[in-house]
Amino acid sequence: xxxxxxxxxxxxxxxxxxxxxxxxxxxxxxxxxxxxxxxxxxxxxxxxxxxxxxxxxxxxxxxxxxxxxxxxxxxxxxxxxxxxxxxxxxxxxxxxxxxxxxxxxxxxxxxxxxxxxxxxxxxxxxxxxxxxxxxxxxxxxxxxxxxxxxxxxxxxxxxxxxxxxxxxxxxxxxxxxxxxxxxxxxxxxxxxxxxxxxxxxxxxxxxxxxxxxxxxxxxxxxxxxxxxxxxxxxxxxxxxxxxxxxxxxxxxxxxxxxxxxxxxxxxxxxxxxxxxxxxxxxxxxxxxxxxxxxxxxxxxxxxxxxxxxxxxxxxxxxxxxxxxxxxxxxxxxxxxxxxxxxxxxxxxxxxxxxxxx
Length: 357
Known about the structure:
InterPro entries: FAD/NAD-bd_sf, FAD/NAD-binding_dom. The protein contains nine helices and 20 strands.
């Protein structure tokens, strides 16, 4: 009897977990095995974590809301296996015409793969200008966190420090960026623009000088800058040429690595010209899912990833926010509609539902 073909997914964030869930329903137990490996044994819904850290609203600290276990992830438990481990390296079978290889954990345990998908995300602080441009979510987190804090602490001084002259990325129109600034100032949130603070003081702090020489009075400084790709194991395993200088994974439109047809990537680490947002990763998953199933059937990967239009929804506490969709002439939504779409529950219920909760 022929051995099973093995699909291994490294990273169980939004894209990795959703691909694993979809494959667990699509794969034939007799022919295939599915292994999901993650350094965390839970999923963290980042937008909801901002409210969980500041408020008791919605009991978000309970399991199955912002922090979601993986025990209900697989639609068919006889197909999927979850492994809590950190990956140290990828060892491709270069001598085999069939491709494949194995991944090795930090403990030395090996998992063979026929197809490998590595959507492992980002960590740490941004270290270069090029990385800052790619990690465009950082200012969104700062703005939303400020709104959550203001909801609970009405009299506290809240300051957002941002390195550019306007909030958000220049992907979005100035009118939107200025509108967000106006909304925050209206809630008595102080903005320090064209400024930054690279060395974050520990708690409790006091008056701190920014890099531009401005004094910011605060007891607590919270870094919300974007992270750098957690892809060093790819460079050490497959060579530096598999990554960009900033550590993002180079892929073809099929989301296969350029020199490895049996390895896919998606999510935060993808080298693709688009703003990195959770909303985009559903299309990453659809593309990889179609191509993985095609390869397993002996066909070539034919699905090609196409970016969706740019859009952004920025909450400002429970009741407010601002949204923009780059369609037609550019559609902008204010407090009421943004609240109905996002701010009221920050997609907590929807995110948990995609993991079986």
